[in-house]
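Entry for coenzyme A complex. Fields follow.
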Amino acid sequence: MKAKSPSESRVEMTELVLPNHTNALGTIFGGQLMAWIDTAAAVCSFRHCRNQCVTASMDALHFISPVKMGEIVILQASVNYTGKTSMEIGVKVTTENPLTGEKKHTASAYLTFVAVNEKGHPVPVPPVLPHTEQEKRWNMEAKKRRAVRIGG
Ligand SMILES: CC(C)(COP(=O)(O)OP(=O)(O)OC[C@H]1O[C@@H](n2cnc3c(N)ncnc32)[C@H](O)[C@@H]1OP(=O)(O)O)[C@@H](O)C(=O)NCCC(=O)NCCS
């Protein structure tokens, strides 16, 4: 299977925080942000594999700063590492103030997606081939996380 660069599947998704996304304090529901993170990662997995993929896990997720109604949320997803049938996808969440343009790092998440056939059985994924220094660092860090995650 031909190796693919992370740049071939990278996703940037932009959302606007509306009243139906927020709680009584006017800040976003954590679950809403998790849904957007899952969607960005899913699109990234489809672009990498051109195959159906399912979420196997999401590592611990920490919300570093609150996201307010009216703010812009930018989700950047890329494939950090591939195993035989699984991929680690990293999603960085940044919040942008629509009036000043000020940006804040809001959360980072690491998800494992598995490519599956029509019966839901895992199938091989194309290996990811990191090119840039940053991609190589993300790949090494993801390899360590995978070892902790699955004990391998
Ligand atoms: C994900 C799923 C397909 C894995 O099936 P499985 O029979 O356990 O597969 P295997 O044990 O052969 O593992 C397949 C790969 O998934 C990885 N994997 C399985 N469970 C995992 C988990 N909880 N976290 C991270 N990786 C996991 C394995 O490490 C393996 O990776 P590799 O091939 O790159 O080495 C299966 O558990 C499933 O269908 N889960 C439900 C997925 C779903 O519906 N998600 C939507 C939200 S509910």
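NOTE: Residues 30-49 form the longest helix (20 residues).
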